[in-house]
Amino acid sequence: MKYRLAAQLIILVMTAAGCIDMINRPEDSKAESVTESSAADSAAESTAEQSSAGEQSMTGTGDAEVDEKMQYVQGEWFDVNGDTRLVISGEQLTLHFGTNYEKTFAVAAEKQGDWWYLVEKEGRDLGFISDIQIKDDGSLIAYEMILDADGHDYHFVREEQIAAEKEIVDLSKDMPKQIESKEIRQFTLNFSTKNGRGYGLDDSWRGASYSWTIEKQSDGNYVMDFDQSYDSYIGISFHDTVSAEYVAGLAGQIAELGLPALNGYYQKNNVDLPGYYLYVKYESKEKLEIRAEGNAADTCVFDLAKLMEYVFPMVAQED
Questions:
Q1: 3-state secondary structure of 295
Q2: pLDDT tens-digit profile of 214-244?
């Protein structure tokens, strides 16, 4: 009897346990399933968010750089080399040429190689101006696209920078102010009468670029070249040998005009205008250098017209 009751008690306990297990198992299984599903969904969402964030980050970096460049160029810019003014408002760029003409374009910042440019948004051009390069030095540069003349170089800066760009600086070198030798081995003179410069020359010599060189050859002969170049044609092109006496006369003219006293002179500013350059090398290895660039070359520190009187009779017949 005692054993039968014990056995029945064990059966009842096992049955109860089984019922409890049957009751609890579906809910636990469902909970575990829900937990695993939630974890999987969370992982998938996390992956998707990371992927999306990555894409947004890559896109944002590019857009941010474009926006940064466009923000940088907003406002007014002034051409150091002329009277052109550039105004940028949003994506609208207006070029003001003096006070009589202006033209407006829709522009965007675009990277080309290592440099950023302002370009026309529809893939066209900016009229006769090239794409505008955004420089790291706080300026914008472009050039005039013409075929039969020297194009204008645009150098845009902020208004407060103009004075510094146009300031003439003295870069002169301390060179001997006397030349003992009278024997020239090499002579070079380059200058331009464009941009309204006259240098005391006759009007017939205006509006051109000039190059005059003499060089002593290994055989002792002197070869002289003289070129007068206008925008679309050559006025004079002289190439011939000249006598030792002719070169000696040039050395005398240089001394008479007092050019050695200016030896080492060099002044310039950042305006893009042609300058003048005189260089003489003597048999004694003495050297004479005089140069000016930009607005510093608006006037000449020596009598250029008098020096040119020496060469004109020789080359005028080539005109």
A1: helix
A2: 999 999 999 999 999 998 889 999 999 999 9
Enter the tokens of residue 199.
């240098």
SS3 content of the chain, % helix, strand, coil (to 5): 35, 30, 30
How does pLDDT run across 8-37, given as a tens digit for each residue? 433 433 444 443 444 344 444 444 444 444
Q: What residue ranges in the chain does DSSP mark as E strands? A: 75-79, 84-89, 92-97, 101-112, 115-120, 132-134, 140-143, 153-157, 169-170, 184-192, 209-216, 222-229, 234-242, 265-268, 276-282, 287-292
- CA 81/CA 150 separation, integer angstroms: 14
Task: Report yes or no on whether pTM surpasses 0.90.
Answer: no
**Distance, CA of 74 to CA of 77 (rounded, Å):** 9
Describe the crossing of helices 244-256 and 304-315 by its angle, rounded to 10 degrees: 160
* Residue among 192, 188, 212, 187 nearest 315 (CA): 212
The conformation of residue 306, written as its DSSP 8-state character, comes to H
Tokens 């240098």 correspond to what residue? 199
Q: Are 23 and 30 in contact (CB under 8 A)?
A: no
The answer to whether 244 and 224 are in contact (CB under 8 A) is no
Cβ distance 280 to 212 under 8 Å? no
Distance CA 311, CA 246 (A): 10
Query: CB within 8 A of 246, min separation 6: which ones?
Result: 222, 314
